[in-house]
Amino acid sequence: MADKKTLLDVKDLSIIYTSRNETIHAVNGIDFNLQKGETLGIVGETGAGKSTTAYSILRLLPERTAKVTSGSIMFDDMDLLKISDGLMQHGIRGERISIIFQDPMSALNPIMRIGDQIAEALKFHNKENLTKEELEKQVDETLQLVGIQKERKDDYPHQLSGGMKQRVMIAIALVCEPDLIIADEPTTALDVTIQAQVLAMIENLKERFGTSMILITHDLGIVAQMCDRVAIMYAGKIIETGTVKDIFSKEMRHPYTEGLFGSLPNLETKSSRLHPIDGLMPDPANLPTGCKFYPRCPHCMPICKENEPTNITSGTHIVACHLYDSEKEKR
Ligand code: SF4
Predict the structure, then answer these.
(1) CA-CA distance, 189 to 30, in Å (whole number)?
(2) Which residues of the chain register pLDDT less than 50?
């Protein structure tokens, strides 16, 4: 990837949520980057911190309860955590970085025609100088791009199937031709056949516009199909990262990643039982010391309960696990 340029560079990002009684440590000092045109998959169980990370990029976290306690999010040469609200609203969000939400029904306006919702996105992002005819033409073209006939533009969201609603969300995300799309479990609410169609469409459009993408998912099959690189998250930390090949090879695999693969059906071994990871994600208000995975890890050693593992790097593959420390460090 040396010929590509870094579009997004996240360093030491930590985010907490506070309530009257407790502090939730949702994201705990993560680093990752994204190259232009690249798709990065962020994978992990519910509660791993994936969506919090994604929403922090667009500053969409709830203001009253969420707080970024450290780090930077560099996008081109701007720190997205430091730019003004005005620039974020009229220059970045929706224009240069768009998001596709998990549930289109709650993201679309139920009392607004879908064509008007696409046109509104165009008008909001500095395209108000378009004539009515030009606006109509762009809405028609965008709908056709996502495989919806332009005659459906006067429909309301409830008149569309789940797959079509998600296509409308994708149309709204794409209409300003952003540099980066964040897709938060974009096909979770869809059945499997429609899921395949929507993923193929996202992939085509991404190629066509050269858009970079962060794809949040818990589905390793989608990762294999869509991603260039992968970051595995657990308890608010990135515990393994690498190319898709690194993650799918069995070399230097993190025990948590091993557990994710063990939870999938394997056609080669024809095993009659799946092997889900024992136990639950730790309470983010009361994280264990040392490795956050140790209460569930079948390879746990004494050092794991005391010292947080540091990153071990092998080429493009990075793993935070004491199993791969040198023998001297394990003692
Ligand atoms: Fe398991 Fe220890 Fe590695 Fe954590 S550091 S994943 S507890 S072996």
Answers:
(1) 28
(2) 1-3
